[in-house]
Amino acid sequence: MKNHKNFILSSISDVLNDAVSASAGVNSGIETYPLCDYIMQSVFLKMTGFQEQKMKCICWELATNDYEYRRMLLANDDKLGECSSYRDKNNMYKRLIEQICNYNSDFKVANIDKREIRKSTIESIEQIFSKTNLLIWGQVTFNEYENIWNSIEEKHFANENNSLFTEVNNGVSLKKIYDNHLYKHRNRIAHNTLAYQQNLPTLKTLTNENYKFENYFLWFAILILIDKIFIELYKIYLDAVKDN
Phi and psi for 165 in degrees, rounded to 5? Predict the structure, then answer.
């Protein structure tokens, strides 16, 4: 259980730090630009895998302390999935909140410091990529990420309706970005569907308004945001279990 706890409380940004360290000795000249997409794909896949395993570890921790939940899990009544899709993560988010409420009926999602979570997510991206090859290679997409992320507010995630991301009709929707861009790209890389597909986007794709969401820096920020939400809730869960 201790190994699970340490892993769950560890930051997904450690994966990004490893990638930055590994590429630190590479020049930033134009001849090194082909490395950018290869490194970004690799670290993105490692981060999504990291988060999937963390979701499963949280699930196992809940089942260890709640025998009824364990029965549901083993009977497959609770559809855990691969913990990679937004639906899977949102279900895990709801389960974790339910378990906290079982121990502390006064708990409200509003209790977590969403302002700090958003702020620390931005700081993580800035600190990790500052003055690195990865930022030099992807300066344009980094600027686009900043423009998009500036429109993300606390109301867009972890709200009282027990949804990880808030449904948004107008404006930037984290859920739509996750479903339509981040998750689809995760599947393309994980199953190597790019092997038989056109490697470069068509002009029609490039002119699409939503193409700006095909952005590794944006996806990294979303994965870090999710990670910070779950770490915060898991800490609250541990305290609730200990108090009872």
Answer: -120, 145
